[in-house]
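In this supplementary section we document a worked example of the pipeline. Step one takes a protein sequence of length 521 as its only input; no multiple sequence alignment statistics are reported here. Step two produces a three-dimensional model, which step three serialises into structure tokens for compact storage. The input and output of this example are shown verbatim.
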Amino acid sequence: MKIATSDEMRNIDRLAAEDYGLPELLLMESAGHRVAQAMEHLLGTVAGKTICVLAGSGNNGGDAFAAARYLSNMGAKIKIFLTCEPEHLKTTASRMKKTTDKMGLEVHRLEEDRDWNRLHLALKFTDAVLDGILGTGFNGELKKKVLRLIEEVNEAGKKVLAIDIPSGVEADTGRVSTVAVMADMTLTLGLPKVGHLLSPGADMTGQLIVDDIGIPQSLLQSDKIQQSLLNDKLAKTLLPLRGKAVHKGDCGRILVIAGSLGMTGAAALAAMSALRAGAGVVTLAVPASVQPILAGQLQEVMVQPVEETVAGILSGEQALNRLLELSQSHDAVLIGPGLGRAMETQELIRMFTAKVNKPLIMDADAIFAFNHQPDDLSKLPQVPVLTPHLGEMAGLLGVSVPELRESLLPIVREAAAEYQCILVVKSECTLIAYPDGMVFLSTLGNPGMATAGSGDVLAGTIAGLMKQTESGLAPLMGVYLHGRAGDIAYGEKGEGLLAGDIRENLSAALKELRQKQMTAL
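The serialised model returned by step three reads:
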């Protein structure tokens, strides 16, 4: 499924009218009907229920007026509050209001104190609120009247259905300047918006329902829309089924360069995750002094000692040559988990990545090695996969995390193109950005995955898939399996889950995916 920006959605609406003869009024009528059905889904039934409808001056308000008419016909008692002068309504919204006026539905303005008292009382006794105040065109700061209205809605504590996007949430960023409607459910029209998926907008959206309202699929699935949702439907197409004659070499020989004194856990998690993701052979290259520790833990991983010039870390020319030699007999390389940030190690990382010519995944300390010098990434002999969390991404670009969050999608997209890398940016909604501008967003995962080592598991999962599917698709497949494994673990452990629980549930997530693939055949 595609994900739209506000500009892209406006263009879709324009093309629906110009190329397909679907005028704005017709789409608004369809939207109103779907919104009324969604409200019935939220409440169980609307017959005999009181619903407070909040309408703004734009198309969002027009959708609310249309929904009010349907809800009234379904037996609901409707009270409408309008945030603007009636003459300031957009043309189509004004036509919808005139119909509700003819039906005798209550429409109140919010001007005098008595109007606000009426609203306060209505919210106290209503069964639900329909939010049609602002639409996807909102950005910046809220006007005082709208700010007060949203605060009244949130304080009332009633069930809320938002039309398209909760009022106060910016559709392209998920940003909330001051306050936003806290919806229980959001019915979005045409396509989901970026702001539904990125926090804090994601926290305001509630259950997200997507309805095409009759817009042709050729518009909704246009190649010009460069954001897509990473969901089950897409995941089923990413990983080929295994034949009966498959052997371990076919499934990938993966080299993991990780670990240092005091950080052996990251290396173990990454290496075992690659195996759990289905890799055939995993070799873990570690400093010689920590090799016995990891060799005793990992029975299925070949743990190779690498000479040290400084105790407990990877450094020096001999280590570099040994790592390059090992890479030649492997299909892909993961470098970074737990390597440490010693100057000698960071220099080795930069030299190794500049010379190795294998599919490459860079995590944690390998990303740190390029902090404030991301231009060097575009000079590497391959297109690397980087797996930063927001702090690491901000450090790489030399910005603060708040600055990064302000424009997360465009910044990540631009960075992937400029530095010729695939970026897997980990947050409450993981972004996978490709150099050609395409970005995938994943909503899999949960708060329990905010635990040490979760990123090492993700990096290992992606590495383990590099030979099983096309290397460019491995980041998508890895994010999907990692998220599903985390959700399975969360069902068992809740917020007490550990990174090892995610790793151990990779096999369950993979089995589940295979069952879905077979069902689809």
